[in-house]
Amino acid sequence: MHVLSKNFQSIRAVGRYCDFMSELDMCDFDIMCLSETWRDCREEIVATPHGHTVYLSGDAGRCGVGICVCKSLLLKISNVSFHALGGRLCYLSFTLGRRHFAVFSCYFPTSWAPDADVVAQYDILKLLLTHVRDEGRCLLIAGDFNASIAPVHSFEPSDVISHSGMGERNERGDALIQFVLEEGLCIASRQGDADRMADSWTCCRSFDGAKVQIDFILVDGRGEPVNTWCDFIFPVGLDHRCVHCNIRFSISSLGKKRLQHSLKGWKPFLDENGFFSPPHLFAAEGLKWMTVLLGSFQAMPFLYRRLRMCMKGWAKSKPQLLRGGLGDGW
Questions:
Q1: Among 94, 116, 262, 323, which is 20 to 30 Å from 276 by CA?
Q2: Can you give the pTM of this predicted structure?
Q3: Residue 266: pLDDT above 70?
Q4: pLDDT of residue 94
């Protein structure tokens, strides 16, 4: 899955919005997470001329987030549900194959915003992650975190945070790392080669010209980052580059043969006189059928009912062979 994240620095004006829509149809991606759109409608769902669908969540301020799904992926997914949660957070849930996904797009407060605003944003995100985890969904989180991690420290898990990142560590970067470790996530967009660190920047700050990495793509343990890169493929909001990451998920379906077992043709083991065979043989035959039938513990009640019906039917046909019958307990 090709995931892309981009800060657009406003697509509120008609001209910039039209430029965004036209460039979107020429861009290659599966899922795109948008941040700082400045759109003032709480929820917008728009189809592009090429067939992509854009889900936007906004407010009256200079925030705004969104998620775009490409046409080819739309044909493969089902159970699509969009949740517009304001100008800083939204998420899209869907099913692909036998996997259920939740994709979050976020825009965190800038460095001059109060720390309490950042803490509140993380608290809301953690609450939502708990909810979607209860539904068994694979997690993707992307956007502008306004946090600089820079090169990883020696005592930090490099397989989770990785080495590929420009800038200097700040308090927001520490908060992001803490969030990633607490939630069992991986910063997929930093999984590049250490020798490409100079090309890992995502934002050129306007007030000092420093190149920093503040836009990220996060994934949980069910996604495997394959490769990542940054570029200017989207010429809207040129202070920020596009962040790309190819992530591998297993989405194959369960085989049908595993679900086609039954008790058709089952008969109890009887000896040559018509009595039940020794208990250990009867148990072995029952265990064999249980092994064949039971793909999960949930099939136990069905097996018990079927065995009970078979035993009662056989008892009625040959009551003299049961030495006292089955009794009312069956």
A1: 262
A2: 0.75
A3: no
A4: 97
User: For residues 149 and 161, is the Cβ–Cβ distance under 8 A?
Assistant: yes
CATH placement of domain 2-248: 3.60.10.10
Within 10 Å of residue 313's Cβ, how many Cβ atoms?
9
Q: Is 106 exposed, middle or buried (0-12, 13-18, 19+ CB in 10 A)?
A: buried
CB atoms within 10 A of CB 326: 14
Map residue 103 onto helix, strand or coil.
strand
pLDDT of residue 312: 62
Which structure tokens are listed for 10? 């406003």
- The beta-carbon contacts of 222-225 under 8 Å, at least 24 apart in sequence, are 222/99, 222/138, 222/249, 222/250, 223/1, 223/138, 223/139, 223/140, 223/186, 223/188, 223/247, 223/248, 223/249, 224/248, 224/249, 225/186, 225/188, 225/189, 225/191
Report in angstroms the alpha-carbon separations of 89 from 169, 244, 282: 24, 20, 61
- Break the chain into its structural domains and give their ranges: 2-248, 256-321
